[in-house]
Specification:
The chain is mainly alpha-helical. It has 2 helices and 2 strands; from the N terminus they run βααβ.
Length: about 110
């Protein structure tokens, strides 16, 4: 049976997981702004006697700068992460196996018992 050691034991959790956390945060913001918010707004005005006011998205103000900025951050993060993986694989001269923590592991650190 093989026991795999992580590629870099010294890497902090936040350092590894900030990219997916940014993507999940952006997805949650978009879901609220374009799906949940309008539904809540519709039901609020249909259940009360207040005149209907259409939902105004929170993130499209200022010309959608929020979406441009988040797209740039996530795009550059994905590109640099891809380059890190390519460099790691080329350095080891073999494809590294994929683990459940979405980190590639080096075969040089494999321990076979």
């Amino acid at each position: 049976m093989q026991n795999f050691k992580p590629y870099n034991n010294n890497e902090e959790w936040l350092n590894r997981k900030w990219r997916p956390m940014m993507a999940y945060t952006y997805m949650a913001i978009c879901m609220f702004d374009f799906v949940v918010g309008p539904i809540i707004n519709y039901y609020f005005f249909t259940k009360t006697s207040i005149p209907f006011v259409a939902w105004k998205t929170l993130t499209l103000g200022e010309g959608g700068l929020f979406h441009l900025a988040m797209g740039a951050i996530l795009g550059v993060a994905a590109f640099t992460r891809g380059q890190e993986k390519v460099t790691r694989i080329e350095r080891n001269n073999s494809p590294a196996p994929y683990d459940s923590n979405s980190n590639y592991r080096s075969r040089a650190n494999d321990v076979i018992e």
